[in-house]
Design a protein that fits this description.
By secondary structure, this protein is α/β, with parallel strands linked by helices. Helix content is 30%, strand content 23%. The protein has a seven-stranded mixed beta sheet. Strands 8-9-10-11-12 form a five-stranded mixed beta sheet, with no helix packed on it.
């Protein structure tokens, strides 16, 4: 069963069994904001039902922390919400086609495959490049882009009157970070910028809530693996032949990071 936790007054995170995904719910005097919308409109409707159990106020705002399907394909379940995201988030979601939907089908149990039929992907209505603010009445949300990391469009969401930061997949708790669309050379510096905002509670994209010590530790793990990738790239060692014993992440994650780091390093040559 999903877990609903009130982190501070009117600031909730809902943790789901599917993908161990976190979504945020922030209640303001003028309405409710939802942060990330799950993986399909059906799953998004389940999230909407959870919101209704908290408050009858309208959901007036939706925020996508990035464009990955598990965070944004539920947008259609919130037709009355103004959807916010990074400029690049809208560009990617606008381009989603049948091949993209087919590519993620293996993540769903067979009984959920029907949720992907005629899937409506709704991109953000409102976009920004660096920073934006949403006024909820008696409190606000600050949306900030700190740089390349997990994708090219990751944003974090802060609450003006609570030391909580919804970090999306910039940091993970229940699994290693995903580097398949990532920019590992930039990721540690991006996390440095996030850490400098000094939140007390960080809600990762997946898993339990964490603190800044955890974020700093994961940042260090990424940085040390990036340095190993730089050394191997300079030495001309093929990715499959790089020794990975002793590095912080499991081998599949490490080699995925190396593949993305090599692409970045090749583009800089």
């Amino acid at each position: 069963m999903p877990q609903l936790e009130e982190l501070y007054a009117g600031v909730f995170r809902r943790r789901h069994e599917a993908l161990d995904l976190n979504c945020g719910i922030v209640v303001g005097s003028d309405g409710i904001a939802v942060i990330d919308t799950r993986e399909t409109p059906t799953a998004g409707q389940d999230l909407m039902d959870a919101v209704r159990a908290i408050s009858d106020l309208p959901v007036r705002w939706v925020v996508n922390t990035h464009w990955h399907w598990d965070h944004a394909w539920g947008n259609a379940a919130f037709p009355d919400g103004a959807i916010w995201g990074h400029t690049r988030c809208r560009e990617v979601l606008e381009a989603v086609g049948p091949d993209d939907v087919a590519a993620v089908k293996h993540w769903f149990r067979p009984e959920r495959h029907a949720e992907l039929d005629d899937l409506e992907v709704v991109p953000p209505h409102h976009t920004f490049d660096d920073i934006a603010f949403i006024d909820l009445g008696d409190r606000g949300l600050t949306l900030t882009y700190h740089g390349l990391a997990h994708t090219d469009a990751d944003i974090v969401v802060g609450v003006t009157d609570a030391p909580v930061l919804f970090a999306g997949d910039l940091v993970e708790e229940s699994a290693p970070p995903y580097f398949g669309d990532g920019y590992p050379l930039d990721w540690p510096g991006t996390l440095d910028s996030v850490i400098a905002t000094r939140p007390e509670v960080v809600v990762p994209g997946h898993g339990d809530t964490i603190d800044l010590a955890y974020v700093s530790e994961q940042r260090a793990s990424i940085a040390s693996t990036v340095e190993a990738a730089r050394s191997a790239h300079t030495a001309g060692i093929p990715i499959a032949e790089v020794p990975v014993a002793g590095l912080p992440f499991p081998e599949p994650t490490t080699r995925s990071l190396f593949a993305r780091a090599y692409l970045q390093l090749d583009s800089h040559e």
